[in-house]
Amino acid sequence: MKNKIKDELLDQLLDGYSKPEDLTGPDGLLAELKKRLITRVMEAELNTHLGYDKHGRKAPGSDKNARNGYSQKTLRSDDGKLTIKVPRDRAGEFEPVIVPKHQRHFDGFDEAIISLYSRGLSVREIQEHLKEIYKVDVSPMLISNVTEAVSEEVREWQSRPLDTVYPIVYFDAIVAKVRHEGRVSNRAIYLALAIRLDGCKELLGMWSSANEGSRFWLNIFTELKNRGVSDILICCVDGLVGLPEAIETVFPQAKVQLCIVHMLRNSFRYVSWKERKQVAEELKNVYNAPTAEAAKVALEDFRQRYDTRFPAIGRSWEAHWERLVPFFDYPPEIRKIIYTTNAIESLNSSFRKISRHRNLFPTIDSLFKLFYLAARNISNKWTRPVRNWPAALNRFTIEFGDRIPHHIKR
Predict the structure, then answer these.
(1) Strand order in the sheet with 201-209
(2) Is the pLDDT of residue 213 over 90?
(3) Which of 37, 72, 106 is the last residue of a domain?
(4) Domain-ending residue, one of 73, 106, 139
(5) How far apart are CA 43 and CA 35, in angstroms?
(6) Which of 18, 65, 301, 324 could pair covalently with 91 via S-S, beta carbons 3.0-4.6 A apart?
């Protein structure tokens, strides 16, 4: 519907205008127009409900219900507080559509609260922001009630059905302080970030336990299976003991790739700061080798040169070798998609950034709400396939054959 506002009407509305506050201030023209228009729409809704206009006649045989004056209602809105007149009927049956009963907001006010919350602002910071921008005082209880509506959305998201096959899934965990069962403790937050068949990222879920362990990961893999995941081609993980075996228990055909970056970090623990650059260059010869055989030769050369000083490094790479080399089966341009968990590390970094002002989460639910909203914001940018994805998918199609569905549904 197109409304044309005539210049004559604008001239009448702006008669007496002298400063911006006359138009946009709390008592300005725009706020007054909004109040009047909301009331006018509700009066039209009441006309429809009763079956006749305000000064019209009732239809023969209609019931005795009629108008019954107005009640006042104060709304929170983008323009501050709006006090509107709500028309009533005698039977109390009228339910306004534009501003339903019990609703105390208009425009995107609740969305503003959720947006601020999702960016890691504390309740006090949200109160101050709303006071400054909207000239409205809100209570901590109101903010809690608005954000609580997200909890149900989190539960639905956490239990949603998943795709049957994911080419790559990264598994990792971060730690946050949470008050749980009356005690403050570190809680492990488990994350599963997938690359779908269309090459776009998707966070499959979030879980929590007292600490990271392969037994709890096994429960997560079982849940993913129950939510529809029948196969994962490649799982990228850190060096947690027992994690690869837990994956293969539920997804026996999955290839497990240990993160090279995690291996490097673990190796640098044994090296002084001055020597790290040199050791890093030597290890680069291992994971940048053209083939797994060449990488093995480079590792043997590294051990011959450094085992006397840093024996733990060579032993660690040797012990995990079978989990480190799967990425050598792929061309150089797609190896980085596989051999590093940087994708999920980037997500973890975003979570840490928005929660840095919160030394303690009062509940697990509050943490999940914040991380879920943050992930929702981040996922809005996941609209394009990861780099070199067509080449990777072609390679996967050749290697994994019938395990990849012929049609990509998204």
Answers:
(1) 201-209, 183-195, 165-180, 231-237, 255-258
(2) no
(3) 106
(4) 106
(5) 12
(6) 65
Range of the domain at 76: 24-54+64-106
Same domain as 44, residue 174: no
Q: What is the pLDDT of residue 239?
A: 77
Domain annotation covers residue 81: yes
Q: Residue 179 in contact with residue 362, Cβ under 8 Å? A: yes
- State the pLDDT at residue 304: 95
> Is 265 among the domain residues?
yes
Residue at 310 is within a domain: yes
> What does the pLDDT look like over 78-90, one tens digit per residue?
556 778 788 888 8
Q: At which residue do the structure tokens 């609209």 appear?
A: 383
Is 94 in the same domain as 210? no
More confident residue, 229 or 22: 229
Digit-coded pLDDT (tens) for 100-113: 776 666 555 666 77
Helix (H, G, I), strand (E, B) or coil at 94: coil
Q: What are the CA-CA distances from residue 133 to residues 79, 168, 185, 365 (Å)?
A: 9, 44, 37, 28
Can you tell me the distance from the alpha carbon of 282 to that of 287, in angstroms, rounded to the nearest whole number?
10
Say if residue 68 is in the same domain as residue 184: no
CA distance 115 to 373: 8
**pLDDT tens by residue, 242-261:** 899 999 999 999 999 999 98
Do 102 and 31 belong together in one domain?
Answer: yes
Indicate if the pLDDT at residue 1 is higher than 50: no
202 plus 90 within the same structural domain: no
* Residues 320 and 213 reside in one and the same domain: yes
| Within-domain flag for 117 | no
Percent of the chain with pLDDT strictly greater than 70 = 81
pLDDT digits (tens, 9 = 90+) for 282-329: 999 999 999 999 999 999 999 999 999 999 999 999 999 999 999 999
Phi, psi of 59 (to 5 degrees): -70, 145
Residue 327's alpha-carbon distances to 86, 167, 250, 340, in angstroms, are: 66, 13, 22, 10
**Strand bridging mode 165-180 / 80-89:** unpaired
Residue type for 17, please?
Y
Q: Each residue of 123-155: pLDDT tens digit?
A: 777 777 777 766 667 777 767 766 776 788 888
Split into its structural domains, the chain has a count of 2
- Do 97 and 211 share a structural domain? no
Q: Are residues 331 and 230 in the same domain?
A: yes
